[in-house]
Amino acid sequence: AQSVTQLGSHVSVSEGALVLLRCNYSSSVPPYLFWYVQYPNQGLQLLLKYTTGATLVKGINGFEAEFKKSETSFHLTKPSAHMSDAAEYFCAVSDPNFGNEKLTFGTGTRLTIIP
Amino acid sequence: GAGVSQSPSNKVTEKGKDVELRCDPISGHTALYWYRQRLGQGLEFLIYFQGNSAPDKSGLPSDRFSAERTGESVSTLTIQRTQQEDSAVYLCASSLDAPGQETQYFGPGTRLLVL
Lengths: 115, 115
What we know:
The structure holds two protein chains of two kinds. By secondary structure, chain A is mainly β. Helix content of chain A is 0%, strand content 50%. In chain A, strands 2, 5, 6, 10, 11 and 12 form a six-stranded mixed beta sheet that branches. Chain B has strands spanning 5-7, 10-13, 19-24, 31-37, 43-50, 65-69, 75-79, 88-95, 105-106, 110-114. Chain B is globular and about 40 Å long. Chains A and B meet through strand 5, strand 6, strand 10 and strand 11 of A and strand 4, strand 5, strand 8 and strand 9 of B.
């Protein structure tokens, strides 16, 4: 069974400051890892994903995440926050042995940007 | 179409009534998923369709929930005898479900309120 833990249901950062959203997972096999963003009243949009290869993955809007197997983590970062980054962010994991069935999502982190 | 579409966008119903939620996946996507997102919670997997294979219904919370898909096109999620705890946003996603094509693309969701 897989699970995802997102530390901090709410994170606030000042505009221009570093954004760090934490995600830890448990999986019996090397997983695929995803970050999705949900803007108010919109559907989820893929930010980035890790499947195989380079452990530092870059996504849209200046976000990136690093897969650290030893720490079972896939934290999301952005060097400088922008007001438009205010949204809810979801980390998700899937078992590649089962293709892309049943993404397991974390409970989400709501990011607030302080002007 | 350009993306996954869902209808209606909002649905208010009375306890005990049946509701049908519709999902139109991206053309050519063989895999289709339904998720439920309760207020303040992460996404909860409900059901997964892949081509002509038997659907994975392991996430359906009760026998009041059912879903159908016609070929590789439209899917309908039906909730019978709705209860107040069914109030949530119901999200549909589709993907190619092929190696290297694991990304699920989400629709905007149907916001269901059971009074």
